[in-house]
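Notes from the 1:1 (GR / supervisor)

We went over the backlog. Supervisor wanted to see one worked example end to end before approving the batch request, so GR pasted a single chain during the call. The sequence is below; no edits were made to it. Supervisor asked that the structure be written out right there so they could see what the output format looks like.
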Amino acid sequence: MTQKLIFILANTDPCRPGELGPPLVQAAVAAGMSYHVEVICTGSSAKLLKNGVAGDIHLKPGDPRSVHDFIKDAHAAGVRFFCCSTGLDLLDMHKDDLIPECCGVVGAAHVIEEIMSGESKVLTY
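Structure output shown during the call:
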Protein backbone atom coordinates (compact mmCIF):
# COMPACT_ATOMS: atom_id res chain seq x y z
CA MET A 1 0.00 0.00 0.00
CA THR A 2 1.33 3.44 -0.95
CA GLN A 3 1.95 5.69 2.03
CA LYS A 4 0.18 9.02 2.10
CA LEU A 5 1.89 12.27 2.97
CA ILE A 6 -0.12 15.42 3.63
CA PHE A 7 1.40 18.87 3.63
CA ILE A 8 -0.77 21.43 5.38
CA LEU A 9 0.12 24.98 4.48
CA ALA A 10 -1.46 27.09 7.19
CA ASN A 11 1.27 29.46 8.33
CA THR A 12 3.07 29.71 5.00
CA ASP A 13 2.19 33.23 3.97
CA PRO A 14 2.45 34.19 0.29
CA CYS A 15 3.71 37.60 1.47
CA ARG A 16 6.91 35.81 2.57
CA PRO A 17 7.99 33.99 -0.63
CA GLY A 18 11.05 32.36 0.94
CA GLU A 19 8.72 30.15 2.98
CA LEU A 20 7.00 28.71 -0.09
CA GLY A 21 9.82 26.79 -1.72
CA PRO A 22 10.53 24.04 0.82
CA PRO A 23 7.03 22.56 1.10
CA LEU A 24 6.43 22.68 -2.66
CA VAL A 25 9.77 21.10 -3.51
CA GLN A 26 9.42 18.49 -0.75
CA ALA A 27 5.92 17.60 -1.96
CA ALA A 28 7.19 17.12 -5.52
CA VAL A 29 10.11 14.99 -4.33
CA ALA A 30 7.80 12.83 -2.19
CA ALA A 31 5.49 12.28 -5.18
CA GLY A 32 8.54 11.31 -7.23
CA MET A 33 9.33 8.73 -4.53
CA SER A 34 5.89 7.16 -5.14
CA TYR A 35 4.14 8.59 -2.09
CA HIS A 36 0.54 9.68 -2.42
CA VAL A 37 0.88 13.41 -1.68
CA GLU A 38 -1.70 16.06 -0.90
CA VAL A 39 -1.05 19.72 -0.24
CA ILE A 40 -3.89 21.38 1.64
CA CYS A 41 -3.81 25.17 1.69
CA THR A 42 -5.74 26.91 4.44
CA GLY A 43 -5.75 30.35 6.02
CA SER A 44 -3.67 32.90 4.16
CA SER A 45 -1.93 30.08 2.27
CA ALA A 46 -5.15 29.52 0.33
CA LYS A 47 -4.23 32.65 -1.66
CA LEU A 48 -1.66 30.52 -3.49
CA LEU A 49 -4.45 28.61 -5.19
CA LYS A 50 -6.25 31.72 -6.45
CA ASN A 51 -5.87 32.42 -10.16
CA GLY A 52 -3.14 34.98 -10.81
CA VAL A 53 -1.60 35.03 -7.33
CA ALA A 54 1.15 32.38 -7.43
CA GLY A 55 2.18 33.47 -10.92
CA ASP A 56 3.20 36.84 -9.53
CA ILE A 57 5.29 35.44 -6.67
CA HIS A 58 8.94 34.45 -7.03
CA LEU A 59 10.97 32.70 -4.35
CA LYS A 60 13.74 35.26 -4.70
CA PRO A 61 14.28 38.42 -6.73
CA GLY A 62 15.30 37.73 -10.30
CA ASP A 63 14.17 34.10 -10.23
CA PRO A 64 12.52 33.41 -13.61
CA ARG A 65 10.29 30.69 -12.13
CA SER A 66 7.16 31.71 -10.31
CA VAL A 67 5.59 29.87 -7.39
CA HIS A 68 2.90 28.79 -9.84
CA ASP A 69 5.66 27.08 -11.88
CA PHE A 70 6.64 25.12 -8.75
CA ILE A 71 2.98 24.20 -8.19
CA LYS A 72 2.69 23.03 -11.81
CA ASP A 73 5.82 20.89 -11.46
CA ALA A 74 4.58 19.33 -8.23
CA HIS A 75 1.17 18.67 -9.78
CA ALA A 76 2.82 17.06 -12.81
CA ALA A 77 4.75 14.80 -10.40
CA GLY A 78 1.44 13.64 -8.90
CA VAL A 79 0.85 16.05 -6.03
CA ARG A 80 -2.83 16.83 -5.46
CA PHE A 81 -3.56 20.36 -4.26
CA PHE A 82 -6.66 21.20 -2.24
CA CYS A 83 -8.04 24.41 -0.83
CA CYS A 84 -9.57 24.22 2.63
CA SER A 85 -13.08 25.63 2.75
CA THR A 86 -12.14 27.86 5.69
CA GLY A 87 -9.48 29.47 3.49
CA LEU A 88 -12.08 30.18 0.82
CA ASP A 89 -14.35 31.79 3.38
CA LEU A 90 -11.56 33.78 5.02
CA LEU A 91 -10.40 35.23 1.72
CA ASP A 92 -13.82 35.68 0.11
CA MET A 93 -12.85 33.28 -2.67
CA HIS A 94 -15.03 30.90 -4.67
CA LYS A 95 -14.30 27.56 -6.35
CA ASP A 96 -14.24 29.36 -9.70
CA ASP A 97 -11.28 31.44 -8.46
CA LEU A 98 -8.98 28.42 -8.09
CA ILE A 99 -6.10 27.48 -10.40
CA PRO A 100 -6.48 24.37 -12.58
CA GLU A 101 -3.92 22.45 -10.47
CA CYS A 102 -6.27 22.63 -7.48
CA CYS A 103 -8.19 19.35 -7.28
CA GLY A 104 -10.99 20.79 -5.19
CA VAL A 105 -12.10 22.07 -1.83
CA VAL A 106 -11.93 20.08 1.40
CA GLY A 107 -13.34 20.88 4.81
CA ALA A 108 -11.87 20.69 8.26
CA ALA A 109 -13.42 17.23 8.73
CA HIS A 110 -11.32 15.86 5.83
CA VAL A 111 -8.14 17.14 7.44
CA ILE A 112 -9.03 15.69 10.85
CA GLU A 113 -10.08 12.33 9.36
CA GLU A 114 -6.84 12.04 7.40
CA ILE A 115 -4.74 12.84 10.46
CA MET A 116 -6.64 10.54 12.81
CA SER A 117 -6.80 7.60 10.40
CA GLY A 118 -3.20 6.81 11.19
CA GLU A 119 -2.63 6.00 7.52
CA SER A 120 -1.17 9.40 6.68
CA LYS A 121 1.91 11.31 7.72
CA VAL A 122 1.30 15.02 8.13
CA LEU A 123 3.72 17.93 7.76
CA THR A 124 2.52 21.38 8.66
CA TYR A 125 4.08 24.58 7.39
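Supervisor's comment: Residues 4-124 form a domain with the Hypothetical Protein Ychn; Chain: A, fold (CATH 3.40.1260.10).
Batch request approved.
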